[in-house]
């Protein structure tokens, strides 16, 4: 324990790693019910997983990004949906730390301070006395079932001004949930659609979206913390990159647990572990996991170093963090695919975790901010001297 009373990185990671067997047992329930179980949420809360990006003055840890990546790897080893939901919570929780301190007092002192959210402005806000009236719907809201608040993105519409993108903090009690999460991957994340129907949001729970993208938050209490010096898109990239690596490590563990006694059907190999093709494919997969972990940790190291120094971000540095996220995911997925391909036909049974791992990492790689090709194209564009073609950098 550090002198401040906050657990060290090693203590937090070890604490979560010790929970992996318990969390794996709960993964089947989450898969079948399309959301994390109450027991899983309670286990994660007790371990402090939801406090990693909560301000210290509310009992949070204000962890650096490297800690997030290492914790996410352990959670991904346990279950993709658990790792995904936890890492998604970290992002809007961080965004909440950019709001006025009075808004943070509301969020972080409630009995259920978990924050879900999205940066996609698929809602509208119109001015009203003391705030705005919000309407809209937001898809892919991971963890909505167990959140107390949602960070939503909407476009402010005024007759005398250009449309302006905003971020708003809204209690989940003011929103409706559409139970529409019927998917083949990350089923346990409960990434449902939420809806607002003429919801009033007071002014102190509103910030311009540009305040998060730069960032230039409105919080005085968090103004000097290095945690809130990183552009929001890079916070998102570095927060979630560890999950894919953890899934690949889980695939490796499952493969080697099943290897003893396995043969290669319709060949003379009575032991799969004696076949040279197995040796080649296993080495290939493990090398890719190592490479994926390199990209994940490099992204975290760059974010932490820039946050600590307070230096301005170069566009190439921003693009490289996004590229690291995409490349880590690409390599991790290739490793999972390799382990699945040498696991035989029995790997498709639902009681073999490999099939769920494969579906989860496929789903994760489809996310618009994670997609390896999108991120690689952006990085290459910057390297070729062109301007970025996105605001999410």
CATH architecture descriptor of the largest domain = Up-down Bundle
Give me the secondary-structure category: alpha+beta
What is the count of DSSP helices, taking H or I runs of 4+ residues?
Answer: 12
Net shape = globular
How many strands, which pairing sense, and closed or not: the largest β-sheet?
7 strands, mixed
Low-confidence stretches: none
Oligomer: single chain
Radius of gyration: 21 Å
* CATH homologous group name of the largest domain: Butyryl-CoA Dehydrogenase, subunit A, domain 3
Please explain how this structure is put together:
This protein has 393 residues and is α+β, with helices and mostly antiparallel strands. The protein has 3 domains: 9-99, Acyl-CoA dehydrogenase/oxidase, N-terminal domain (Butyryl-Coa Dehydrogenase, subunit A, domain 1, Orthogonal Bundle), CATH 1.10.540.10; 114-209, Butyryl-CoA Dehydrogenase, subunit A, domain 2 (Beta Barrel), CATH 2.40.110.10; 230-383, Butyryl-CoA Dehydrogenase, subunit A, domain 3 (Up-down Bundle), CATH 1.20.140.10. The protein is 48% helix and 15% strand. The longest helix is centred in the last third of the chain and has 34 residues, at 276-309. It is globular. The mean pLDDT is 95.
Fold topology:
Elements: H1 9-17, H2 20-33, H3 38-46, H4 65-78, H5 80-96, H6 101-108, E1 115-128, E2 131-141, E3 149-156, E4 164-171, E5 176-178, E6 192-202, E7 206-208, H7 209-213, H8 232-258, H9 276-309, H10 315-341, H11 353-365, H12 372-383
Parallel strand pairs: 1-3
Antiparallel strand pairs: 1-2, 2-6, 3-4, 4-7, 5-6
Helix pairs in contact: 1-4, 2-4, 4-5, 4-8, 4-9, 5-8, 8-9, 8-10, 8-11, 9-10, 10-11, 10-12
């Amino acid at each position: 324990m550090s002198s401040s009373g906050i657990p060290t990185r090693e203590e937090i990671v070890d604490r979560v790693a010790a929970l992996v067997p318990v969390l794996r047992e709960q993964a089947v329930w989450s898969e079948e019910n399309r959301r994390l179980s109450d027991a899983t949420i309670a286990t994660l809360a007790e371990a402090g997983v939801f406090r990693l990006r909560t301000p210290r003055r509310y009992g949070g840890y204000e962890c650096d990004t490297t800690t997030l990546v290492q914790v996410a790897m352990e959670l991904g080893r346990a279950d993709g949906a658990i790792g995904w939901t936890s890492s998604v919570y970290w992002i809007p929780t961080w965004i909440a730390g950019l709001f006025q301190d009075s808004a943070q007092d509301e969020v972080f002192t409630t009995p259920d301070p978990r924050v879900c959210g999205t940066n996609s402005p698929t809602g509208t806000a119109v001015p009203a006395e003391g705030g705005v009236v919000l309407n809209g719907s937001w898809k892919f809201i991971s963890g909505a079932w167990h959140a107390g608040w949602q960070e939503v993105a909407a476009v402010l519409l005024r007759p005398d001004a250009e449309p302006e993108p905003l971020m708003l903090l809204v209690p989940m009690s003011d929103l409706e949930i559409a139970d529409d999460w019927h998917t083949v991957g990350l089923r346990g994340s409960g990434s449902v659609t939420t809806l607002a129907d003429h919801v009033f949001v007071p002014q102190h729970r509103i910030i311009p979206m540009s305040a998060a993208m730069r960032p230039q938050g409105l919080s005085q209490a968090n103004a000097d913390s290095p945690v809130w010096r990183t552009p929001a898109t890079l916070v998102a990239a570095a927060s979630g990159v560890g999950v894919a690596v953890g899934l690949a490590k889980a695939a490796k563990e499952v493969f080697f647990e099943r290897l003893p006694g396995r043969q290669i059907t319709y060949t003379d190999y009575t032991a799969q572990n004696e076949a040279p093709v197995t040796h080649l494919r296993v080495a290939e997969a493990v090398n890719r996991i190592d490479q994926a972990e390199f990209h994940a940790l490099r992204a975290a190291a760059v974010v932490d170093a820039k946050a600590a120094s307070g230096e301005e971000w170069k566009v190439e540095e921003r693009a490289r963090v996004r590229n690291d996220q995409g490349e880590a995911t690409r390599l991790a997925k290739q490793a999972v695919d390799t382990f699945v391909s040498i696991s035989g036909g029995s790997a498709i049974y639902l009681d073999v975790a490999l099939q769920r791992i494969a579906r989860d990492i496929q789903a994760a790689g489809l996310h618009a901010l994670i997609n390896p090709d999108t991120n690689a194209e952006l990085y290459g564009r910057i390297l070729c001297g062109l301007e970025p073609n996105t605001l999410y950098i």
